[in-house]
Amino acid sequence: MLKNKSWWSQTIQCHMQNQKSLYIFVSVLFMMGVIFGAIIVNTLDLNQKNGLINYLGYFFRQLKENSIAEPSIAFQHAVGDYLKTVGLIWILGLSVIGIPVILILIFIKGLVIGFTVGFLVNQLSWDGLWFACVSVAPQNLLAVPALIIVSVAGISFSLLLVRNRLIQHRGTIYPQFISFSFLATGMGLLLIIAAGIEAYASPWMMKEMIPQVSWITVPNGS
């Protein structure tokens, strides 16, 4: 077990060292998505904001009444979504035209997080920030690094394909393919843990925060 952990740790460290510039680029792109998502909140018109506030109020009501999806069902959906994303990035990494799509996926991930946190803070001020800390942050502390790692690995492998197949027309890529696949598998396992946090831990923490944001008008559900 310790040897396996050491091997995974060394593999990831070596990968991150060799792809430092790519990590900086992808991380900056993700942060740009976060910033852009937060800016979009300020461009919403009154009707759009009211619609989102009503939905947020409905969600709080469901959460307070324990009427949200069962944790096991939420876990299955979260695992499915995460593994589909990793699988898509893995497939895109095996093609020479997958790089732009991988970058778009990372940008959209940042955009969604930025918009969610930005809207909560915009409407609930400090209460919204604390609520975001328990609803958005816990699972994404694992999910975002895992997605960035597998994205960089996919971009790196795609660039390797370009060099070896389109430019040099020689060289084996099988070892790099195995390494990329193992890395994607490892990040998939990490995302399963993130899905567990999202399904089991986050709802409990969010419920504890509801009294601090209960001044929102909650619809009757009619």
From TrEMBL:
Keywords of this entry: Membrane, Transmembrane, Transmembrane helix
NCBIfam families: spo_II_M
Native source species: Thermoflavimicrobium daqui
Protein name, entry field: Stage II sporulation protein M
Superkingdom assignment: Bacteria
TM ranges: 21-41, 88-108, 115-137, 143-162, 174-197
One Pfam family from the record: SpoIIM
Cited InterPro entries: SpoIIM, SpoIIM-like
